[in-house]
Amino acid sequence: MRLQLKNPLVFFDLETTGVNIVSDRIVEISYLKVFVSGEEERKTRLINPEMPIPPEVTAIHGISDDDVKDAPTFKMIAKSLAAQIEGCDLAGFNSNRFDIPLLAEEFLRAEVDIDLMRRKFVDIQTIYHKKEQRTLSAAYQFYCNKELENAHTAAADTKATYEILQAQLDRYPDLKNDIAFLSEYSSFNNHVDFAGRVIYNDRKQEVINFGKYKGRLLEEVLQEDPGYYGWIMQGDFALHTKKVFTAVMLRKNGRG
To answer: Of 144, 148, 181, 202, which sits with the fewest C-beta atoms within 10 Å of its C-beta?
Structure first.
């Protein structure tokens, strides 16, 4: 089924040095950009992560330190990548929990101002798990009746993810061919930051979602325990989480 789009939709996949969105880095990014007209644009590029790629990770995606030693760093391509996805919605497989948070971290580290939270996100894995509950290779076999060759290469995974979404729309009549609907169906729900450390309550107020202050309004905690903000800033938290804390702190102090 052809997607009904109001904005271009970018299916993307990252290969990385690991699965920690705070400390790991991108080694390859591939995207398939589907325009409103139905035209497609593909691009895959290696990224120098400026850190060693663990052998056990290379064994999964096949990308070694030698492969990326002459590749550009993310900071070198960040502005052009931001321009390429400007005005687009984003889609991927497990992208809401991993690829988008890690991509947001890389943009923040590169000091490129791009507000990904303004985009719509369609996570094909979430739709799949709500409907069938399995993995990308199994989803490809199940929906498209094809074997996923070259699994764990960004280009193959990206193309498979695009085909799976089209097949999901064909298979499930209750799935609307509408990116706003699909984004809501596979959404972050009430996350304020990508990592889900802060969530919205029913009144759209920021609430802490972890640790000793879990369930408390963030603004109230910052008022009662000013040192908590410093602990977050110095801690091993995602840059986007720190950005959310800073925005609430500035608002509380009348500077937001």
So the answer is: 202
